[in-house]
Amino acid sequence: MSYLNAAADNYELALLNNTPEFAELLAVSAEFGLEVNSPPTCVARNLVVRGLRFNVLDWQGSADGPDKPTLFMVHGGAVTSHTWDLVALQLARRYRVVTPDIRSHGDSEWARDGDYDHHEMMEDLAAIMREMDLPPSVVIGHSMGGALVERLALAHPELTRAIAIVDFTPESNYPGLPIDVVRLFDSIEHYAERASKYGDRKLSEVTYAARHELLQRLDGKLMPKHDPRHGMGGPGPGYYPGTPGFESMKAVTVPAAVIWGSDSFFVTDEKSRRLAEVMPQGEGHCIESAGHQVFLEQPQAFIDVVSDFVDRL
């Protein structure tokens, strides 16, 4: 198996700013009209917690200080920590941004026993935050990551300064991925062309993401990095068993933003607003002309919403 992206290959920190992938990120950012000068640093590291090795990206800019908020951003199913790169590059100019690969995804280790219970995955996140000695953070989760953030806010409120749930609600509308089915692709371009059809995503951005989401088999075919034993998404009990419902989320007392795309297939406007309303300090933000991948389709609008939310804490 061959990987297509740079990563930390031992316990030493790996600076990613000098890699070809980072140069590609800057080019994609420029296409969106985002700032590319004097970028923050992005360091990859391997952490071992709860018997598994996790890849974690740590973004930091020049605006350092003891009171600078930390954003802990959790990606969704079938993607990687690099799914946040486009917006992390901007948010890290003002905040510390930490983005882990959840178990079985990206450059993190697959669970040896195939245990992908979402409670265990949430406990992984708590362990990573403690291992890094992070302060109470603004914990942001997209899609399946939103489900994990819901659990984290309820189980470990001491770790959360605030939360943001991005395009996820209880009772989601997505039917999920079949378990134990490996999707194969002939090339990065083949994968990117297919993936770009899901939402209004630039082909260059999807191509960048593909380098982090795929690995190459010995026969030359490309396959997603995530463990196919992990089923993700959907309302069925096989996908999100135990996900907190609307009633449970009333117990989240920290500031909470619910962010969703107006054109998302994954959530509805009604459920998104309901989730924001049940949390005592909840607020809802619908981003227009965006689908499920809100922050990749309308990155500047997403950055504006998150920055305003964090600055008001």
Could you describe the 3D structure shown?
45% of the residues are buried. Helix 2 crosses helix 9 (299-311). Helices cover 29% and strands 20% of the residues. Strand 5, helix 2 (85-91) and strand 6 (96-100) form a beta-alpha-beta unit. It is globular. The mean pLDDT is 92. It has one domain: Rossmann fold (3-Layer(aba) Sandwich). The strands form two sheets. The chain has a nine-stranded mixed beta sheet with strand order 2-3-4-6-5-7-8-11-12, with helices on both faces. A three-stranded antiparallel beta sheet has the order 1-9-10. The N and C termini lie far apart (45 Å). The protein contains nine helices and twelve strands.
Provide the descriptors you would attach to this structure in a database record.
313 residues; alpha/beta; Rossmann fold; 9-stranded mixed β-sheet; 3-stranded antiparallel β-sheet; 9 helices; 29% helix; 20% strand; globular
List the helices and strands and how they pair.
Layout: E1 2-3, E2 14-15, H1 20-31, E3 41-49, E4 52-60, E5 70-74, H2 85-91, E6 96-100, H3 118-131, E7 137-142, H4 144-155, E8 160-166, H5 188-195, H6 203-213, E9 214-216, E10 222-224, E11 256-261, H7 269-278, E12 282-287, H8 294-297, H9 299-311
Parallel strand pairs: 5-6, 5-7, 7-8, 8-11, 11-12
Antiparallel strand pairs: 1-9, 2-3, 3-4, 4-6, 9-10
Helix pairs in contact: 1-6, 2-9, 3-4, 5-6
